[in-house]
């Protein structure tokens, strides 16, 4: 009797027998750790074709379909396990045995990573988009503002008037550095009767120079310099004997004035810049006034001012009277030249301040007022004018110098009246350093 026949028919206990015999066959796949029905894959054994199916309505489990119970009433065969004949006794016992597989601990479910709010698949968060938009707007604004700062003076340049300031005949050779003649004219041209009264210029015909400044810009890294040539300087005027230097402008205009300066100093003049009464006052008003330290009380009816000593902001008409006045100055024409250089530096300091550059209407007004009131010599370029303006600004700080030609007698009697006499030896040495682009004392 087989072991299956010896089993007590009333015993419902399942029987598990482990066959320790090693038999060749295919290894079973691991037991399904989650339990449940298993699947047995592989071919049927030849001797299984003759085994009766205990229940024709149910698959016997030897194919690819899941089985509920092994042949002969044995234990359930796990789904997904391959057939292994090491655990089959050939049908003698009627029981199919399975190896006991250790159970694996269940893995806790993992939640998917949380996507930042507002971010779609493959897209950066909304906050990153906002930051990029802000950076892009800032860059566009900076580019637009830079273009405005560059284009505005170029547009204003179209309003600049040109004059013939190139002298005839032999001229000094250009050695090093840039040298420009900056002239303040007392011309009333273009001023209405009301403006003449407001600016206290009178209605004198003709034109003279109220200020003559030689602007030196070094190419050797030295400081730039504004050098005043007093308008009463007694010098030779080509073809007109000796006279006050401002007479050259009255006689022959910019051409003769440039020629006179070159012959008296030995310095080649590279460019010419002139501004009149009206243009000067409009430039100051376009800046909203210019602050200056008035060195003493100034009450000058001819200049149209009555100013008290101390720091104050001057309007256009007040500023014009401040730089023109000489009768209330104890130093006379020399004191006036000093105030002119000082005020030119104050204008450029205000023009380069954030109060001007960051206000579009003020920046536009300054550049166009300056252009409309300025005359430049033929051949004088925007780059030349830029060097002049930078030298003016430097003169008010430690980056530039504000000087006057060496004087031996400020009240020298001449046939043309009381004049200013230069110190010949010191003046020649002084202008020689300018010509050679050497440091000035």
TrEMBL record:
**Ranges where the Cell envelope-related transcriptional attenuator domain occurs:** 208-352
Q: What is this protein called?
A: LCP family protein
What are the start and end residues of every segment in region (Disordered)?
1-128
Residue stretches of biased makeup (Pro residues): 105-115
Biased region (Basic and acidic residues) positions are 1-13, 44-61
- NCBIfam families in UniProt: lytR_cpsA_psr
**InterPro entries the UniProt entry points to:** LytR/CpsA/Psr_CW_biosynth, LytR_CpsA_psr
């Amino acid at each position: 009797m087989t072991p299956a026949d010896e089993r007590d028919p009333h015993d419902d206990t399942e029987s598990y027998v482990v066959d320790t015999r090693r038999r060749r066959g295919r290894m079973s796949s691991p037991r399904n750790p989650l339990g449940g029905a298993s699947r047995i894959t592989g071919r049927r054994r030849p001797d299984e074709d003759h085994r009766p199916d205990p229940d024709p309505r149910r698959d016997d489990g030897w194919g690819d379909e899941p089985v509920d119970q092994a042949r002969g009433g044995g234990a359930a065969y796990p789904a997904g396990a391959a057939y292994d004949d090491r655990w089959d006794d050939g049908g003698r016992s009627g029981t199919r045995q399975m190896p006991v597989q250790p159970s694996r601990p269940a893995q806790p479910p993992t939640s998917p990573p949380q996507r930042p709010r507002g971010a779609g698949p493959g897209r950066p968060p909304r906050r990153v988009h906002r930051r990029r938009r802000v950076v892009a707007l800032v860059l566009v604004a900076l580019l637009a503002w830079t273009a405005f700062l560059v284009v505005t003076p170029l547009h204003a340049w179209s309003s600049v008037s040109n004059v013939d300031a190139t002298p005839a005949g032999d001229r000094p050779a250009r050695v090093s550095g840039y040298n420009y003649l900056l002239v303040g004219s007392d011309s009333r041209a273009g001023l209405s009767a009301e403006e003449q009264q407001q600016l206290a210029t009178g209605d004198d015909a003709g034109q003279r120079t109220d200020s003559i400044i030689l602007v030196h810009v070094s190419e050797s890294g030295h400081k730039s310099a504004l050098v005043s040539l007093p308008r009463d300087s007694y010098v030779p005027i080509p073809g007109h004997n000796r006279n006050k230097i401002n007479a050259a402008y009255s006689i022959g205009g910019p051409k003769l004035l440039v020629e006179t300066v070159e012959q008296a100093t030995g310095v080649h003049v590279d460019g010419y810049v002139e501004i009149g009464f009206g243009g000067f006052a409009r430039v100051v008003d376009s800046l909203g006034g210019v602050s200056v330290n008035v060195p003493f009380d100034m009450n000058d009816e001819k200049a149209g001012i009555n100013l008290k000593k101390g720091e104050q902001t001057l309007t256009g008409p007040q500023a014009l009277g401040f730089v023109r006045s000489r009768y209330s100055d104890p130093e006379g024409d020399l004191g006036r030249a000093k105030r002119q250089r000082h005020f030119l530096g104050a204008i450029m300091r205000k023009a380069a301040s954030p109060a001007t550059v960051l206000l579009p209407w003020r920046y536009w007004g300054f550049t166009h007022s300056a252009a409309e009131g300025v005359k430049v010599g033929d051949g004088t370029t925007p780059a030349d004018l830029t060097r002049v303006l930078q030298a003016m600004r430097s003169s008010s700080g430690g980056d530039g110098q504000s000087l006057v030609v060496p004087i031996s007698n400020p009240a020298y009697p001449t046939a043309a009246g009381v004049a200013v006499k230069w110190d010949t030896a010191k003046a020649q040495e002084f202008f020689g350093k300018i010509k050679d682009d050497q440091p000035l004392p």
